[in-house]
Design goal:
Elements (H helix, E strand, L loop, with lengths): L9 E5 L2 E6 L9 E2 L14 E6 L3 E6 L7 E7 L2
Parallel strand pairs: 1-6
Antiparallel strand pairs: 2-4, 3-5, 5-6
C-alpha cells in the first residue's frame, strides 16, 4: 500500500501461498475481503499483515476506510 493504492492491483498465486502486505503509506489502512471472509483490522503505517490463501478462486479486497482502494488476488491450484 502506497499513496492510497494497492500495488499491484492484481496478482496470481498458487493455492497455499501466503501474501504479505506492507503499509508504506502515511495513513491507517485495512485489507478486507469484499465478501467479508477475512479482514486485517487496522494496519498502521510501517506495519505488515499476512494471509494464506488455501483455496483456489478469485478474491477481491478493499480498504474499509478508503473503499476506492481495491485489488484482486487470483489463486490457482498448485
Amino acid at each position: 500500500m502506497r499513496t492510497m493504492t494497492f500495488e499491484p492491483k492484481r496478482i496470481e498465486i498458487a493455492a497455499g501461498t501466503t501474501v504479505r502486505w506492507t503499509n508504506n503509506d502515511q495513513l491507517v489502512h485495512t485489507i478486507t475481503a469484499d465478501d467479508g471472509s477475512w479482514d486485517s483490522g487496522p494496519i498502521e503505517p510501517g506495519k505488515t499483515w499476512s494471509h494464506t490463501f488455501a483455496q483456489a478462486g478469485e478474491f477481491a479486497f478493499h480498504c474499509t476506510p478508503h473503499p476506492f482502494m481495491k485489488a484482486l488476488i487470483v489463486v490457482r491450484h498448485p
